[in-house]
Design brief:
The protein has helices at 23-35, 47-57, 73-80, 100-107, 120-131, 139-150, 161-164, 168-178, 183-190, 194-208, 213-222, and strands at 15-19, 39-44, 61-65, 89-94, 112-115. By secondary structure, the protein is an alpha/beta fold. Helix 2 packs parallel to helix 3 (73-80). 41% of the residues are buried.
């Protein structure tokens, strides 16, 4: 039997676009996704095609290869997420773990990345997770990326204006997001209701001009709100 779970009956199918410069890779992902209960509404072989296909099909999630001819996945992600709403979630596909291309795509707005040797079940779970607004990146991975490619502050200093504008409570929530805490964990740690935490998270997205928790974490590390190497 296949290790790909069937789609959930009665729920709308998530719409997916698959972007990769290799035909066999696209075909493989399409078969896995369709078997997993998703609708693959488009494919693209490079970043230029990806931007066009995404704007025509309005998918929920884009699987985006990071190294492609004509336009790479970093710039394609940036252009896709600069388009008209509703905007998709982007998952970067890569052969190499934690490289500068992946970090560039995350900074451009991608919600996470998958290695191309991921299992079929892993692909299905990842797509469902990002579509639900969850993070694909562990805090330790974000910290490693920032340390290696993002040049975080070497010594403590003034926070960037976007982070400095946060209230004390918003700052506390941002720190905990960067450390990988879920809303329920943040609520328990700060003695708040989970509904209140959700309100704070929404405010953070607005104030920091980001779309998900991954972007909050990256900004927190890069701006010195959370130090690389701090305990969890």
């Amino acid at each position: 039997m296949s290790d790909v779970p069937d789609g959930v009956v009665g729920q709308p199918l998530l719409r997916i676009v698959v972007v990769d410069d290799q035909d066999l890779v696209r075909t493989g992902f399409r078969l896995i996704l369709e078997r997993g209960g998703f609708e693959v509404v488009g494919e693209a072989a490079d970043g230029v095609e990806a931007v066009d296909v995404v704007r025509r099909t309005r998918p929920d999630v884009v699987l985006m290869d990071v190294r492609m001819p004509r336009l790479d996945g970093i710039e394609a992600t940036r252009q896709v997420l600069a388009g008209p709403a509703p905007l998709p979630r982007v998952i970067v596909l890569t052969t190499f773990d934690v490289d500068e291309y992946v970090y560039g795509a995350i900074r451009a707005g991608a919600s996470g990345y998958l290695l191309k040797d991921v299992t079929p079940t892993g692909i299905v779970h990842a797509v469902r997770a990002v579509a639900a607004g969850e993070s694909l990146l562990a805090p330790s991975v974000i910290a490693r990326m920032v340390e290696r490619f993002g040049a975080p502050p070497a010594v403590p200093g003034p926070l960037p204006p976007s982070l400095a504008s946060l209230s004390e409570r918003e700052t506390a929530v941002a720190r905990l997001i960067a450390r990988g805490r879920s809303n329920s964990e943040i609520a328990a740690e700060l003695f708040l209701s989970e509904a209140t935490v959700k309100t704070y998270v929404s405010r953070l997205f607005t104030k920091l001009d980001v779309r998900d928790r991954v972007q909050v974490a990256v900004l927190a590390y890069e701006g010195g709100l959370v130090r690389v190497g701090e305990g969890s």
